Amino acid sequence: MLLLKISNGGRLLIKLSLSMNYLAHAYLSFADPQILVGNMISDFVKGKKQYDYPAKIHAGIKLHREIDNFTDSHPSTAAIKAYFRPQYRLYSGAFADIVYDYFLANDDQEFLEVTELMDFTQATFDHLEKYPEWLGEKFGGMFPYMKSQNWLYHYREEQGIQKSFEGMRRRAAYLPETTIAFDLFRKHKNEMSLHYREFFPSVKTFAAHTLNELLKT
Q1: CB 195, CB 80: distance < 8 Å
Q2: Half-sphere CA count of 144, side-chain side, radius 13 A
Q3: For residues 135 and 61, what is the distance between their CA atoms, to the nearest angstrom?
Q4: What confidence tens digit (pLDDT) does each residue in 177-199 have?
Q5: 3-state secondary structure the chain
Q6: Of 33, 98, 120, 133, whose CB is crowded by the most CB atoms within 10 A?
Q7: What's the first-to-final CA gap in the chain, in angstroms?
């Protein structure tokens, strides 16, 4: 999750709060279409608006937020953020999110072959297309580009990560460049991979348990 706080006349303002790891949130919806919808739109649903959605979509919204909280507090996330923090400070968490998606897309424990990743991304887009009325203006406006360019699949490529970094620069205030971030990713990729290996099994277990509890309520 990117949580950027900016000082303005002595006040601290939240400027932007968006998760960047779309592949992970899609994958941690466990093939449930309505949970997927909620998980993907969660950052664009503010305040009490979350209660305007059907129960399962609402559960997906809440699941997304629990995953973000777990991710933000995990030691592996702190370790990856540390590579970016000296240069990018409060944006380091957003870079860590994107890095996690790179390693997930290349994780042969989750996607045994490249074709499995492609099949998963296509199924994700197919599910989302069935719920246009719930995607909302912001995510719904972004979704055609996500699908046509297959963002979820291209996270597996270094070039895809570079484009994701650059896309974040275009959307974020006060982020003049991401070239150094990409260089840091390539330089420390092996170490970051080890942190991912420590992190992902734990978040997968956490998300499965959390979803089971949410569906009980």
Answers
A1: yes
A2: 2
A3: 12
A4: 999 999 999 999 999 999 999 99
A5: CEEEEEEECCEEEEEEEECCCHHHHHHCCCCCHHHHHHHHHHHHCCHHHHHHCCHHHHHHHHHHHHHHHHHHHCHHHHHHHHHHHHHHHHHHHHHHHHHHHHHHHCCCCCCCCHHHHHHHHHHHHHHHHCCHHHCCHHHHHHHHHHHHCCHHHHCCCHHHHHHHHHHHHHHCCCCCCCHHHHHHHHHCHHHHHHHHHHHHHHHHHHHHHHHHHHHHC
A6: 98
A7: 26
Residue from 21, 31, 63, 18 nearest 196 by CA = 21
* Predicted confidence (pLDDT) at residue 25 exceeds the cutoff of 80: yes
* Prediction pTM value: 0.90
Query: In the prediction, which pLDDT does 19 show?
Result: 56
Q: How many CB atoms lie within 10 A of CB 132?
A: 10
In this structure, what token pair is assigned to residue 106?
């290349």
Distant-in-sequence contacts of 132-135, Cβ < 8 A, 24+ apart = 134/37, 134/41, 134/53, 134/54, 134/57, 135/37, 135/40, 135/41
Question: Would you state the pLDDT for residue 217?
Answer: 78
The yes-or-no verdict on residue 117 having pLDDT over 90 is yes
Residue whose tokens read 């490249």: 114
Q: Are 161 and 98 in contact (CB under 8 A)?
A: yes
